Amino acid sequence: MSSVAPTGGSPVDGTGERPGPIHARPVPHPWRWVALALIAVLVAMLISSFVTNPKWDFGFALQVMNFRPVLNGLLLGTIVGTIGAMILGVGLGIVLAIMRLSSNPVLAGVAAVYTWFFRSIPRYVLLFMIGTGIGYLYPHVDIGVPFGQQLASALGWSNDLTFWQVDINAFSTTLLAGILGLGFSEAAYMAEIARAGILSVDRGQTEAAQALGMPPSRTMMRVVLPQAMRVIVPPTGNETLAMVKDTSLLTAIPIGTELFYQTTIIGQRTLRIMPTLVAAIAWYLIICSILMVGQYYLERYFGRGFGAPGQTKRDSTVKRLLGVGGSH
Amino acid sequence: MARRHAPTQHHTDVPLVRAVNVTKSFHDNQVLKGIDIDVHAGEVVSLLGPSGSGKTTFLRCINMLESIDGGRIFVDGELMGYEDRGGTLHHLPDKAKAAQRRDIGMVFQRFNLFPHMTAIDNLMEAPVQVKGLSKRDARERATELLDKVGLADKADAYPAQLSGGQQQRVAIARALAMEPKLMLFDEPTSALDPELVGEVLNVMRDLAQAGMTMIVVTHEMSFAREVCDRVVFMDGGVVVEQGDPAQVMVNPQHERTRQFLRRLTSEQHGDQGADIGADQGVDHSADTGVTNS
Asked: Fewer C-beta within 10 Å: chain B N or C terminus?
């Protein structure tokens, strides 16, 4: 065995110096450089086409992005619409998930039927129904004693037991109606996501809370849901991004104060369709980028105690390209 | 080693835990077939028996993590889980059950600490949420308890940052934060690396010495022998025999107890033998490496 040992001794046979720190050469990654070069060429071609093809008309696109009606539509229909619909969707979705998982068969049944109905109706159709159909079917909703009006006419009373009347026709085309429609639809999807999140929490957690004398409601709010959020947040980020884009369906209500409708109108009026499309795309990109940053921080918050992203460090992109540092 | 204070009073006062003819089935499988056990205040009782004997299930029945099919369990004179109205039993609502559990601490095999809370938040959670203690008072008590289990410096650590033994000590402190009259331990050292078992048993030993009433499901024979006032040997869903640890473990009356103890001791010897062999193997090869050169 000692005949194979290099001169100067080897730790294997116990002679020579004891091995020191490791400065090993990285595994070469030539294909990463080839891919990078290829992509650089493609990007350069793309940029060149932007510059040389006047039909893009980025100048006008930038102008459209800053038109007052476009900004107004962006703020109200797209941003307020998304926030409102997601607040309603997440809140109601979690409530539905808890109902679905409860031992109360009535609550579980209601949640199951709700989820079945709203997951089966396309959002565009639902919004059309809210904007046009409901107002036609029920021009106004009377709030009072159930069947009070029928009773009153049968018995000849002067008072028909109605306390309050809502004008559906006036309401059904407001932004609030649109937010309700999108939110109710979203809640059905969020209910399934929240249900998966709640089920992902170890049963031992519930038992520990119960053993400490915490009633079921406290156990859910303080122990189960905060841990379920770790599983709920990433798909909810997905849902939020989808909602930003689904606000363009508000035209079905019809609601005009919304980003895509406004840019489309401008395109039709000016006959410069492409730049207005670019303007809409640019705004959607910006909004979604901001949301993705927000999602990162939310995931970090709810991942506390679990080794969430940001707590375990990864080598930078450049380091990984050069092949120095970790074992990548 | 007989323990601390006044064992004479045991048979005069009402037992803290009284189980009468407790039965329990999972589907067709009857796991408890009429258990009668009394545990008096200040007593430390360990439940021994092979796996599947029903000891963990019985422990979980005491604080209603499992419901029972027959018999009665009383803790501190109170019927657990039901209300007796003129001979008819009525299920207690969840909130009333939660109230009954407040005086019973439980320590789990898998610790079950709340992973999204720091150690001290784990201890403060139930006193603040359930007992309505102010955060300041709860923090003060929690700090004291963490100090008592030797983890004052880990107050702000999340469970994932603690070793198994440290997590289990936090879990014991969390149960104690509710100032329970009774502590239930469900195989508290079974999920731990062997070198971490001692620190948890030490905390439990201190607790026993301080006079806490404890029911401990365990496979730690030395703990049962040295710390417990009484051992209860269960097999097949019944209590086979019970009594003074020295008597039951050294001179068991029943064949099933004898078998169990024999198997346990031979297993432990077997493990030690294997460990020693492996160690010697490593030493040996290292030696030959040196001598070859």
From this structure: N
- The rounded distance, in Å, linking the Cα atoms of B34 and B19 is 9
B123, B104, B131, B109: which is closest to B213 by C-alpha? Answer: B104
DSSP string, chain B: ---SS-GGGGGTSPPSEEEEEEEEEETTEEEEEEEEEEE-TT-EEEEE--TTSSHHHHHHHHTTSS--SEEEEEETTEESSEEEETTEEEEPPHHHHHHHHTTEEEE-TT----TTS-HHHHHHHHHHHTT---HHHHHHHHHHHHHHTT-GGGTT--GGGS-HHHHHHHHHHHHHTT--SEEEEESTTTTS-HHHHHHHHHHHHHHHHTT-EEEEE---HHHHHHH-SEEEEEETTEEEEEE-HHHHHHS-SSHHHHHHHHHHHHHHHHHHHHHHHHHHHHHHHHHHHHHH-
| Residue A275 within any structural domain of the chain | yes
Q: Is there a domain that residue A224 lies in?
A: yes
Closest Cα partner for B159 from B105, B203, B123?
Answer: B123
Say if strands B182-186 and B213-217 run parallel, antiparallel, or are unpaired. parallel
- How many domains does the structure of chain A reveal? 1
Give CA separation, B228 vs A232, A280, B171, in Å.
Answer: 46, 75, 21
CB contact under 8 A, A212 and B102: yes
A62 touches chain B (CB under 8 A): no
Between chains, do A211 and B95 touch, taking CB under 8 Å as contact?
Answer: no
In a domain, A161, yes or no: no
Per-residue confidence of chain B (293 residues) as pLDDT tens digits?
Answer: 444 444 444 445 789 999 999 999 999 999 999 999 999 999 999 999 998 899 999 999 999 999 999 999 999 999 999 999 998 999 999 999 999 999 999 999 999 999 999 999 999 999 999 999 999 999 999 999 999 999 999 999 999 999 999 999 999 999 999 999 999 999 999 999 999 999 999 999 999 999 999 999 998 999 999 999 999 999 999 999 999 998 888 889 899 999 998 888 777 655 444 443 333 433 443 343 343 43
**Is ipTM over 0.90?**
no
Cα separation, B216 vs A248, whole angstroms: 63
Residue A207 is nearest to which of B112, B174, B178, comparing CB atoms? B112
Residues 228-257 of A with CB under 8 A from B: 230
Q: Could you tell me which chain B residue has the CA closest to the CA of A225?
A: B116
The β-bridge partners of B105 are: B183
How far apart are the two ends of chain A, measured CA to CA in Å? 34
Contacts of residue B142, defined as CB under 8 A and 6 or more positions apart, other chains included, come to B120, B123, B124, B127, B155, B173, B177
Q: How many residues does chain B have?
A: 293
B171: nearest CA partner in chain A: A208
Domain-embedded: residue A201: yes
pTM score, whole prediction: 0.82
Rounded CA gap, A291 and B267, in Å?
58
Chain B positions contacting chain A at CB under 8 Å are 63, 65, 94-95, 98-99, 101-102, 104-106, 108, 110, 112-118, 125-126, 129-130, 158-160, 174-175, 178, 289-290, 292-293
Q: CATH no. for residue A263?
A: 1.10.3720.10
Residue A206 belongs to domain spanning = 57-141+172-302
